[in-house]
Amino acid sequence: ALGSTNTLLLWCGPPLPRHRSDAQFEDDEVRILFVGAGLSGAVIGRRLAEAGHAVTLIDSRAHVGGNCHTERDAQTDVMVHVYGPHIFHTDDREVWDYVNGFTRFMPFKNQVKTTSQGAVYSLPVNLHTINQFYGKTMRPAEARAFLEEQADTSITDPQTFEEQALRFVGPDLYAAFFKGYTEKQWGCSPTELPASILKRLPVRFNYDDNYFFHRFQGMPENGYTPMIAAILDHPGMDVMLETTFTPEMGAQFDHVFYSGPLDGYFDYRLGRLGYRTLDFERFSETGDYQGCAVMNYGDRDVPFTRITEHKHFSPWEEHEGTVCYREFSRSCTPDDIPYYPIRMVEEKALLARYVELARETRGVTFVGRLGTYRYLDMDVTIREALDTAADFLAHAAAGTPA
Ligand code: UDP
Fold first, then answer.
1. CATH number for the domain including 33?
2. Global pTM value
3. Where is the UDP-galactopyranose mutase C-terminal domain (predicted)?
4. Of residues 20, 104, 139, 200, which has the active-site annotation?
5. Residue by residue, what is the 3-state secondary structure of the chain?
6. ipTM attached to this prediction
């Protein structure tokens, strides 16, 4: 997991002068504005409020929770992951204890399936996938040796997504499960993407079909939004929804934590950082549409990447109806919701220039997925938020710039 040293901790000056003598604040209170009421803002804000700071969070949306937002479908009562599926998994005991302090987590094991070339297989690639794909009955050591024969062992230090795939699963499994899916997901060739994207997925030589390796996994009993609302439920915290940030607003606070898009803070003056956005084609049915929560589609000629059936994310609930999303990925225009930072060579160069601008900006800390332009899992976001809050409070207590 990434630590707080990877966040842009940019509180590097004395507090900004106070521009308002608003009677609602005590004179000795430190006033902090959070732009964005997602996970980062909620977790940092809560720690700062607990330390006695006056915390205000604004969000341009009509709900808290950012892209983790969940809500029940009015017709079916199914809990819907409005901005796409979120599954909580972590090895970080402190983060696990933290989230469990705000909601009850129910057991959830992510068992993803994929449809490819007219058949359904289990992901991540495991012994069942390999045996089914090749029509064999290999045991673990045999499968390992077999895949090693398929693999391109001349690739010693894989740099690209394609090299990583050819080295570890060979050309057949790569073509069936990864090439087409990745072209759809990222809108470019896997030869242009870093190996790190594929490294998120394990290859297993046993029948374990858990998508994640992590020790702690689960789903909040009533969805993510009540969990985040509970984090925000503190007398030192005010939340204002449907409120857009302006620099004038920021000037009324001692410090700003900004979890909106980094380039947006600077009015895109150096250009736009690239994102992929997602379109969800939502449909409802009765019964069970696909028998699992996530069905990927590896074939290039199927236009969507996957179908998610949301009631299977809450397997302890029973519903007659069902709500599904067909998920399409495309490049993000200024009017779209940004999801995945692209982080290819061009974007990295532009990012470096924005980071430089951010470093020069006093009194603002850029946090979270959009504020630091990184693809963050929820547990990493919380870990970084806890560390960022601790750093901020330590520096505030010492009266030194962070
Ligand atoms: N991927 C793929 N086929 C799949 C699932 C994933 O090619 O069936 C690739 C794809 O490029 C994706 C990456 O592996 O971006 C990482 O997968 P993960 O499930 O972590 O993606 P997420 O949707 O969580 O970003």
1. 3.40.50.720
2. 0.92
3. 176-375
4. 200
5. CCCHHHCECCCCCCCCCCCCCCCCCCCCCCEEEEECCCHHHHHHHHHHHHCCCEEEEECCCCCCCHHHCEEECCCCCCEEECCCCCCEEECCHHHHHHHHCCCCEECCCCCCEEEECCEEEECCCCHHHHHHHHCCCCCHHHHHHHHHHHCCCCCCCCCEHHHHHHHHCHHHHHHHHHHHHHHHHHCCCHHHCECHHHHCCCCCCCCCCCCCCCCEEEEECCCHHHHHHHHHCCCCEEEECCCCCCHHHHCCCCEEEECCCHHHHCCCCCCCCCEEEEEEEEEEEECCCCCCCEEEECCCCCCCCEEEEHHHHCCCCCCCEEEEEEEEEEECCCCCCCCEECCCHHHHHHHHHHHHHHHCCCCEEECHHHHHCCCCCHHHHHHHHHHHHHHHHHHHHHCCCC
6. 0.98
